[in-house]
Amino acid sequence: MSAHVGRASWAALSLLVLILLAVAVGIGQRPPPERYPGPPPPEPPQGWVVAASAANVRRDHSVDGVVLGLARCGERAEIVDTWISPLGTRWSRIVVVPGGLTGWVLWSLLDHPAPPGGPARPCSTPSPDAPPDALEA
């Protein structure tokens, strides 16, 4: 009976060591960017564009979230989900077209595109005395 308890204890300890090693290795690695599965839509969506000079596309809907990439002014984006924080900050999960980068951006950095044949909307730029990360909070 004691031999079975010893084997079970060693097996549990070995499993714990393997799990701890896997967690330790995964902590130091940057997650790969998420990509839109499948081919891009045949026609770019007409709903949204990036209105800021640039927007950080993040893994989570948080300013502390890991930055997966950058969406530039005028790039088209398809909103696939939205989330509003308890403080009222609205986030949108987007797919940048045609690159396929997927992640969360502040909703205030998106706008509707200019109508066909209409004047292009200028992208907002931070004031010269703004902090360096004023592109996106």
The residue fraction in helices comes out at: 10-25%
List SSEs in N-to-C order: HEEEEEEEE
Helix segment count? 1
Roughly what fraction of the amino acids lie in strands?
25-35%
Q: Give the N-to-C terminal Cα separation.
A: 61 Å
Strand order of the largest sheet: 1-7-6-5-2-8
Low-confidence sequence ranges: 127-137
How many runs of DSSP E, i.e. beta strands?
8
Structural class: alpha+beta
| Shape assignment | elongated
Mean pLDDT: 76
What would you report as the Rg, rounded to the nearest angstrom? 22 Å
| Main pleated sheet | 6 strands, antiparallel
Describe the structure.
There is one protein chain. The chain is an alpha+beta fold. 19% of the residues lie in helices and 30% in strands. A 6-stranded antiparallel beta sheet has the order 1-7-6-5-2-8, with no helix packed on it.
